[in-house]
Amino acid sequence: MKIFxxxxxxxxxxxxxxxxxxxxxxxxESGYAATAVFRARVPGADDCYFAGVNVxxxxxxxxxxxxxxxxAAMVTGLGKYAEIAEGWVMGAPQNLKADKHSPAxxxxxxxxxxxxxxxxxxxxxxxxxxxxxLNGQMSTTTVGAFLPEAFTLRRFSEEKKSVTKExxxxxxxxxxxxxxxxxEKEIVAWLKGIDSVDYLSKISQAVVLELDNGCYAAGAKIExxxxxxxxxxQSALAIATAGFGACAIRExxxxxxxxxxxxxxxxxxxxxxxxxxxTLLQRAAHAAIPVRFLAGDGxxxxxxxxxxxRLAASGSIPLHKKP
Length: 323
Description:
6-stranded mixed beta sheet, Cytidine Deaminase, domain 2
């Protein structure tokens, strides 16, 4: 499934895209499929479109919503200064087909409070958000209307938008998903090219997942002013699910970097939090899948997912000395 497009799309084309994406959400508990598309931009570049689907977790708070999945793709593809220019959201039971005689297919679903906060972190108050029913009906609101006087990191950040990511459609898509076998060198370069939204912690983390279908997905950590942050493993899994549907994780790569006094020492590496581990464990092929951490000096530390769990911390990203 395509989760990124750079050509200008009509509302009808986006409705078709949202409907096609409904095959991919991972919703074993609710059976409710949410899909989202955001038109996004960085200064001086053409607009792009990013899609997302909802991914449930047995720990419900670690589930990612369709809007969060689209934001994860946007940040991973364009960098921390990407902005939402417009959005479309669809939600309905996954087994429901478009049917003019079904009330549920006519229903317009709105963004939940969690997603409104996260959208507001990347969008101005006048940005339009469209609610699209499975049968095609549409209503429109704005970010300012659904979350007035929003509190966001960008509103109070003094950082200048000095670094942006752009590139061709192929380059942006390659930051999200890859379908060819990747070498260790290629994965390391891929990880190092991903930036997190790290206004609070000054520590960014990127994850690349190798999937059981032979493909790869990447994701960035995304911090939020209301502490509704999405860890890098959640981002990568949301992107993988939107692109390929339910798939198992065969291997994970993790790269952590700090800035402004939070740099990672050469003899250390950034581990995974409990939330990231729970995300990986639920969809891992087995508990002994390999996890590879990039150290501060460029070395690679290899361990199993079970071993990584024993190093975890429940707070911020833990730092560990190289073995």
